[in-house]
Amino acid sequence: MRMSSRAALVAATLSCATVLAACGSGTTGDSGSDDELSVVASTNVWGSIAQAVAGDRIEVESLISEPNADPHSYEASPLDAAAISDASLVVYNGGGYDHFVDDILGSVGGDIPTVEAFALFESGEYSDLHAGHDHGTDNATPTSDAPTPDEAAHGHDGHDHSGINEHVWYDLATADAVAHAVAEQLAGLDPDGAQVYRDNAAAFHESLHDISDVTTRIAETHADAPIAQTETIGHYLVLAAGLHDVTPTDFTNAIENGTDPSPASIAETRQLLLDKKVGVLLYNPQTEDKVSREMRSAAESSGIPVVEVFETLPEGVDYIQWQTRTAESLATGLDSAS
Description:
Order of helices and strands: HEHEHEHEHHHHEHEHHEHEH
Number of helices: 13
Radius of gyration: 21 Å
Helix content: 40-55%
Largest sheet: 4 strands, parallel
Distance between the termini: 44 Å
């Protein structure tokens, strides 16, 4: 979509949202009789995390839940805008990823409470879920092996994949920080449920260890093993597992930005796969095109396992199940390639 068309659509959406919000406001959060809290998430990834914290007390609404949706190009509807403007709490990725949330928040004004995952990532929030975690320390400082936020954002072993990587739902420490931030926000909005929210966040934290245990095992068993990606959605999974992404930067940057990779980078990536120079290929089926499908075919023809990574939850799983399955698929693929 051209920028002028997108700008016009955003303006129309926000204009409609103003009308819808005016009709819907005056309930939650004021002196009216409706005290029901409304939690809205940009995608069902963050919605699943927020729901794990909210438990049975609040039902979280996720604006993007289609398994094949691409949040990069999502255009909010007037109903989406109204949901955000009326929300008691908005949970979203940030970092320019789900830009429509920032567009709407900026247009409606007010002081809607938010939890922005990318802001938590940038703030340097750490937990024992980074590399080298210790199950006995709930608030461990990063070990010498744990990537700093700057290192995590700028690549591994000198491979700079388009600078800042906003796909922070694959960073378990950020997911942990989001869960705890949601718990504190909800505790303030609903003091009667404060302990429930905090207990749920603590249980979510413990469940994340099941995932980090898998990535730690990968890092111990396959340290610095070469892998390839069609784009860098799984960047933080790769970092946590101690793997070495050898995909040409020009290739992944182009796929990530929706442009055509250079013929030279396509040929180099294809040859990595045909020559079996990598253990697995991380592949995003939600934004596949002719070039990425060609890379998948090259991997499969060479017997290289393909591990699918997604931007929204596959059907029928929550965040913990999804991330556990992805990490285990990565481990299985690397084991088979050894």
